[in-house]
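Section: Multi-chain targets

For targets with more than one molecule, the full set of components is provided together so that the structure can be written out for the assembly as a whole rather than chain by chain. Components appear in the order listed by the source. The example entry contains two components.
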Amino acid sequence: MNRIIIALLATLALASQAQAGIDESINAFTAPIAHWVGTVVFFKISIAGAQLPLVVLWLVIGAVFFTVYMGFINLRGFKHAIELVRGDYADPNSAGEVSHFQALATAVSGTVGIGNIGGVAIAVTIGGAGATFWLILAGFLGMSTKFVECTLGVKYRTENPDGSVSGGPMYYLRKGFEERGMAGFGRFMGTFYAIGIFVGALGIGNMFQSNQAYVQLNTVTGGALDGYGWLVGLILAGVVFAVIIGGIKSIARVTEKVVPFMAIFYCFFAIIVILLNFTSLPMAISNIFTGAFTGEGVTGGALGALIIGFQRAVFSNEAGIGSASIAHAAVRTNEPVTEGYVSLLEPFIDTIVICTITALVIGTSQVADPNFAGDATGVAMTSAAFERHMSWFPVPLAFAALLFAFSTMISWSYYGLKGWTYLFGEGQFGQTVYKVIFCAFVALGCIVQLGPILDISDALVFLICVPNILGLYFLAPIVRAEMEAYKAKLVTGEIRKYA
Amino acid sequence: MSENVILLAIDGSEGAERALVHVQRRAELGGAKVVVAYVIEWSPYSFNTPEENAQRHSRRESEIAKAHDLVVGPALTFLSEANIEVESIVRHGNPSETLIGIAKETGAAQIVIGRRGQSGLKSLIFGSVAGNLIQTAPIPVMVVP
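Its structure, encoded as tokens over all components, is:
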């Protein structure tokens, strides 16, 4: 292990010396690939002057279909989801297994991240206030997609000889199509998904996160960390290394405990800012609704607002990407549908609650002072909105962003690992190799300029929506049958509350 | 539901040893059945990494096996040697709440637990199982010093 660390250190030291050169050569090498992959994945069609990427359309149609097909489970299953998370149906004899609450918390900490702070600001900048409306609607529809994919994740998981479990889209794609007599196609889809989630885990689940964390730290320290990307990267990689390879549970535990606290802290102060801008609130809300249908001053009008809103919602809550079903597969339950119910709370928390709060912070600030953020966008824009009322806020916000980034990396390291073990088997040595690669990319994220590399990873994460949602269509009847059977058991009292 | 069931809550501590000895004498005198319970402290509301979740099931099994081997097993042997009817339960959860649940299920007439003798500050922060039981149990609780 020590040799690996030394090798890693040496590579990084070299990388920092030749940083500019490496950046250039990496960019020169990857830019054409990124351009090509991006053009294919984000192939756009022009409708009424707006550019609509087909993959976004694919996700939206899927979400609408699952909402209708499952009988508006996102509305009608909400109360039952809360009861499950609260533990009303938890059998005391299976206490000690992963609880519904734990599964939800783990999946949420994987999705709540930079996107909730910065992504919304980008949506509002490009799509106007109206984008918020579509963002919320996308979150609402995404709840149904999550329901379907997480139910399947549990139903088709694989139990390993050591008692651990592996699940997720690669497993339900393979086994689901196999059951329907399309074994070859299922194997192809499973492998394709596994490669996609592995590469995506190195990009948006890793380099993007560490890069944004570094940028935030550098901004709040007034540029004191300029040129020290390699140092920040090394420290971050070291901490991730300690958790995922060293098995130092305490760090993970601390983060996993601090992250929910930070999310609550963030929402609390966001609500205070909204209240301080109280007089602007009615105007901000009315802007969201009018902007949603008129799209004033936005390129592409209302449709432009819709597209950007939906796109950002998917980036944020990952519904349709299938990542959360990997996390939920770990839960041991006799009723896979219960995990579906629980998971529909994720887009709700992530998009409908947290993203909306951020949008209102920005919206009310804009009403009060249209130029409050200057040219800033992304996290910097949200930060500026807070700063108007609380000059000290950017520092804890940067800290929150760092922790969000860290917990997202830990979650995604697992998603990527499951893609890897699907491809190369569950052997310990292979897993360690993957984890070392993952840590190296954490450091790289702070060193290289992301541009083209991130584009490739972004594109791949969206690309895996294609097999995933296709699989969901094929397997949706199974999910509906499970759901009906489960509901019947609730009615007959076969499944009842313990408390 | 037998009237004469004693629920003995043990945790591997010295206090639990004393409680065990006490229960053995009482059961011999009154011909009671003893339910030996060990609660592994666990909360459904903690935050875990995905990897911890994936390994949770096998961890749980080994935690239960270890509790049987090291704590509950010896107590069972000790009581059976005195010809006392015994039963054992190992379960995860909040200790006092879970013990009360077990007491209800088994129809125990009383709960016997050893005193840990924690310092004031420690029990102030973490609470004491015996203290909580005394406050909340629906049946008599005997604390063995």
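The CA atoms of residues 39 and 91 of chain B lie 5 Å apart.
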